[in-house]
């Protein structure tokens, strides 16, 4: 097992190298000039040219890429073109809210989606099933920013139960941090809940039709045990796969959700960096995201072995 | 229905009531020792000498101080300076610093710091460059005295050292001011009333300013006014929350999570106007929407075509279409080339913008000027809330006068790069784009980048207008304000001949704030007068 993990991690290195080259190339080709943005609307061409020289933006692609890779190998992601802050420090500043948001979203989504998916399958073709499906289709179809604005209006502006924006760091206490992320987590999770509930229902329907379920019922096993112990466990592989691939969805969704709720996370850092063409920051964040994907996929593979003993590496 | 319409609808319909006070967001800090503020943009550059952006200048006035300042009527007063003496031949200015000035690192402000700061700033700023151009020597006579020896009289010296609206003549420690003017400073150490808490700074999210206990306000008899007078820090802490989404910002203000928004999105003005806990305030100096031409490429390398367009653009229609008739209090048509509240403003030639529009006549004149149907590429930044509709309205006027218009949508970052190209439009260049010139930068012809006519060295568009350049120099040499005003009248007349750009109207930045916040300065967010009840 350990050698498998080590092999997977080693195999991730060329993947990340390719991602780095691809992103660097895309940024190089994309229109937009950080020097022009930095110099401001009323700068002259001479001002902008001076900044380009100072930032070494006129260097050819191989030199810029080579310099970046060389710094990276020394553990240096470089400095933001705009703030002059180390990119690594900027990313570290933003990790907490994004990770907590993703974690809360996963918890909320899985906690809600699995039971309703199971219930829908159990009560197949009843009004309960149809209600769950309507809910799932709605939550899957409505964009998370619309859900976000709606939640902010109801629970933030009208009821005043929760803040409409911002993030309270965990250093101020776990509850304030969690409280500031409840609305964003529900908004971000809305799409995910729908997706996961549908997958759970479909897989459960298949499993509930299996012989061993009929046998369990015949021998008088409790329905709750049949559903959650025998059947759900055998649905776990596709569900875990969906959860894993959903992390990608969460990262993408976090960009929108963090903007709507003004959360200082990696998503907003990415958007800001892209809008102002802050190349070192974009490259650093994308590299981190690609590493996260690799790790999540690895974790999903490991979880398969936990839920399905037949799978061995 | 787009998301803004959706939110507006939601905000206007009261469906739910408050039920559970125990869930309520934390109340405002007692006694309002802390101001929570949403600036107009993210603070990502910490050098007010290096950057001209408004947000950096606002930050600069919190953290740094200047030798001179302007009051609200734009009269110049000593600020860090105690006063000055001028020799009889007007070639030697000796400025004495106030006693007790110190930087945020605890070191005293010395004359040598001022010399280094002025030298660096003079290489970045138009007014500063004009000043350094006539300086023979600038030296520190002693710790509290600096002296300018000039090659020729420069009556605008105090005004120049009070410059506001472009690069700030911020005084910083000599070791920091020795940074190359082409590079940004790395430390944020000024001598202003607030210290920048860099350790709490999260670029793109939050900037924190803490009251600097070592700041010694002036003891002038007059109240603080714009950048002059005693700068008093009423708040222990000012927190800037960067919230780029206009609807989230408006909701945060309504929920009492923040105290003030610098720039309320036009879509949300009606919603906030209807909220009894919120007040709206247009800033006194408007910004100016302008249509800028590429003077190097046809058809706008032909001044006759540019002049013809003066008859076609309807400032009222464009402002109304862009910002809405319901927000008419916040925009104004009939503006010329100088800010209406500037001492240099003039009505000479304004009829070019205020007389009845004549699109037909403009079309005839364009045809007579030899327009051959060349494609006119209009750069359209769709990610800026006001620029996009304004560009579409302006493009519509261009179409109506018979121009072959090609609107190309892009984000602002792409536009900023594209507009640097001097090539023809079919080789990656451009013909027209719209932007805003900040009102502060339109106060005089020296800082007014849109009026430069120095060809390839001018602002993008690169007009060549020797007479405008000549008048600019005359303005700098003018002995008094009356003469300067006269020259500005000439400049406005000349601008209507050269047409480096066409102003499309003025619009104020509208700030929104909780009703407990009082004594806000009208010009720009300077925070020295502001207080708030707890």
General description of the model:
The complex is a heterodimer of chains A (about 325) and B (about 525). With about 325 residues, chain A is mostly helical. Chain A has helices at about 1-30, 35-40, 45-55, 60-75, 85-120, 125-140, 145-160, 175-210, 210-220, 225-235, 235-260, 265-275, 280-305. In chain A, α11 runs antiparallel to α13. Chain A starts with a helix and ends in a 6-residue tail after the last helix. With about 525 residues, chain B is an alpha+beta fold. Chain B is about 25% helix and about 20% strand. Chain B contains 16 helices and 21 strands. Chain B has helices spanning about 5-10, 55-65, 110-120, 125-135, 155-160, 175, 245-255, 270-275, 305-310, 315-325, 350-355, 360-370, 385-400, 410-420, 465-475, 480-500, and strands spanning about 35-40, 70, 75-80, 80-85, 90-95, 135-140, 145-150, 195, 205-210, 235-240, 260, 280, 285-295, 330, 375-380, 405-410, 430-435, 500-505, 510-515, 515-520, 530. In chain B, a hairpin with a 5-residue loop joins β2 and β3 (about 75-80). In chain B, α9 (about 305-310) runs antiparallel to α12 (about 360-370), α10 (about 315-325) packs antiparallel against α13 and α15 runs antiparallel to α16. The interface between A and B is large, with 55 and 66 residues.
Global morphology of chain B: globular
Give me the count of strands of chain A. 0
Helix-strand makeup class of chain B: alpha+beta
Mean pLDDT of chain A: 88
Quickly give the structural class of chain A: mainly alpha
Uncertain runs of chain A with pLDDT below 50, 5 residues or more? none
Sheet with most strands of chain A: none
CA-to-CA gap between the ends of chain B?
A: 39 Å
SSE order of chain A, one letter for each helix or strand: HHHHHHHHHHHHH
